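Sample intake sheet
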Amino acid sequence: MKIVDLQAIMMKIKVRNETAKLKAVVVGIANDFGGTPKVDECYDPKSRAHVKAGTYPTIAACVKEMDALVTVFKKYNIKVYRPQNIKGLNQIFSRDIAFAIEDKLVIPNIIEDRKEEADAIVDVLTQIDEEDIIKMPVIARAEGGDVMPWNEYIFVGYSEKEDFEHYTVARTNKAGVDFLATSFPNKIVKGFELNKSDDDPRENALHLDCCFQPIGENMAIMYKGGFKHTADVEFLVNYFGEQNIIEVNKEEMYNMNSNVFSISEEVIVSEKGFTRLNIELRKRGFKVEEVPYTEIAKMEGLLRCSTMPLIRQ
C-alpha cells in the first residue's frame, strides 16, 4: 500500500506583494447570489442605488463576466480555486473573507451579513497547514479589500472608532490594524483612514483598493479624494514618486478604476471600458488584459475584490 505524504501535498501560502507573478488564486462565484436584494438588504450605497434604479446586475451577467476573468487566468496557467456554492448568498467578492500575507492566510472578522461566505472556502483551508492560518480575535475587524501587502509594508485602509461605529461601510477598525502589526512584526503596518459615506457611492471609499492600488514594481493607481488625511496622500506620493502614480478622478473611482488586478509586474487585468486608464497603463509598458466587468462593478467591487491570491512567485 502506497503511503501518501500529506505534508507534500499541503499548500504553502506565499504573497509578499500585489504584483509578483501569480500562481494560485481563489476567484469568487456568481452562480446563485439570490438575484436583486431588497433596498434595506444592501450594505453599500452603490448596490442600493442600482436596486432603486432597477439596474442591479443579473446572475447570468455576473457569471459571464467572472468566466471571462477565469479564462484569462487559465491563459497564464494560474491555478484557480472557486468557493462551494451556497444558495442565495453573494459570493462574488472572495478578497474580503480571507487574505494572504507572506506565508500566512489571515481569517478576519467580517460583517455579519457575509460570515457564511467563509464556510464556502473550507476545501481550500483544509489544504493549508493549521500553523499557517491566523484567525483574528473578535475585537479586530477587517476585510481583505482594505489590506495590501507591499514588500516591507502592509498598507491598511481603516476607520477610527467614531467612523467605524457610525458607518456601515466602515469595515476595518484600528484593532484590526493593530492585530496585523502584532502578527507580522517584521512588517511596517501603515494605516490610512478612508472617507466613508453610507449614502453616496461617489463619496465612499468602501475599501483601500477602491481608491488605491500598487502596480508593477514601483507604481500605483490613486484617487486622492478617497483618503481622509492629506498627510497619507503625501506619504504615498513621496513613497512611489509623483511620476509613478496614475491619478484617477471621482467618476473613475466610482467606476472602480483603481480596482484592477495584477497577474504579474508586467500584466494587469482591467475592465475593457477603462479607456483612459488602459491607454495610460500601456504607455507605461504594461500588457493589459481587458475583460467585461461593468455589471459586477454595480456592487461596488471589481477585479481585485473578486480575487484572493494564495501563491505568488
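Comment: Residues 1-8 have pLDDT under 50 and may be disordered. The chain has one domain: 13-312.
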